[in-house]
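Troubleshooting: if your tokenizer reports a length mismatch, compare against these two reference records.
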Amino acid sequence: MRHIFKPGKDESKPVLLLLHGTGGNEQDLIPLADIIDPEAPVLSVRGNVLEHGMPRFFRRLAEGVFDEEDLVFRTRELDDFLDEAAEKYGFQRGNIVAVGYSNGANIAGSLLFHFGKALKGAILHHPMVPRRGIDLADLHGLNIFIGAGTNDPICPPMESEDLKALLEGVGAEVHLHWEENGHQLTYSEVERAAEWYKATFRN
């Protein structure tokens, strides 16, 4: 997968896995990493699917309707890539915190749904429930931040509440932060995520 890896000033810090939204690329969320933890290693990945020329991490059938077969395939593809990247760049596979926005947050959520503790934690900006009606792995000890908008037309508030309940149902510690905005990612939301990260992953 096309990506950028930046070694951290402190290699003991979690590797920040950056996952962009629809139409983005591996450059988009680099500024977020600088806000969340400027000393952490960064692995920023570009999605392998194109929708009308716009990169995504998996196909969808319509707005808010995921192609579940492709979602499962692409989730496994990303999980395998993380194994390879950990070996190539010499970081611990179990020391990855995902930072995803929209489509990127959805593929990060899918990693947790399908592979359990594939991540050490996650910051999910405006995610949806990746899949419904499946059994989830035990996520006890996993910390997750969800950023949501009360006026989000793409990810309605109930979607965020459902995702929180599903993750907490298998033991995850979930912090749901609300902004009185739509689907856009605001600086104040990123700041709240950074505060949560610093409180959660203090070395």
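Reference record two:
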Amino acid sequence: MSQDSSPPPYLRVAERLRQRIQSGDLAPGDLLPSLSEIRDETGYSGTVGQRAYAVLVDEGLVVARPGRGHYVRSQEERPLLVRRPRVTPASGSPAEALLTEQGVRASWDSESTTARADRRIAERLGIAAGDPVMHTTYVWRADGEPVQLAESWEPMSVTGGTLVVLPEAGPYAGIGVADRMALIGIETGVPVERVTARGASRAEAALLGTTPAAPVLAIERTYYDRAGRRAVETADIVLLGSRWAAEYGTRPVNGAAAE
């Protein structure tokens, strides 16, 4: 009895889509068929379509955008972005200013909710586990492509009842931690950052449009009140490794250190 040596269905679907991309029938940025369209066209289940797209994402031909579908990835090399500590107060959103300075259009989504600090976050903030915090999540984009994720936590004992309690809403939305804290009389120093390299989690990969275990820079950042040395904000920042380099220190300006 002979065995069927043909590729499994998901590889056949992946090959069909690959050929359309490589022939130019599907151009960079084009939306690819939905899982239901693949099912209707081929008769295969949605799982086959999911596995086919996983193959194409792994190959770098396709990018997955949660809630929007799969798109043909541009094969042009994207410029490397450099992340630096903020040095100019009152310049608006630090992340937006940094991206704009490097010639890309910055955009972001954010969501803030009140939460209870778990043990890990409580230790970083120097508060008790279960204390209330403002939790904000971010997805940052450069020219429409996701490049950075962030989660921040601020003790409600610091910002609760003030006009800066919501980082991305109200009269002082989006101006950054240091400037927001200054508005309520708290001067912060340079934040403490701990940088490590690791692979992206599945959830992070989905948000960044990359594959699980793709290299990322993971930064634990904490801002402190200069007067009392209490933590006023802590954040987990995830940078797509293929798009970012981190730079620390201050470059000289005309032979003198920049302020």
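Descriptive notes for reference record two:
- The first helix runs from residue 9 to 23.
- The chain has a mean pLDDT of 89.
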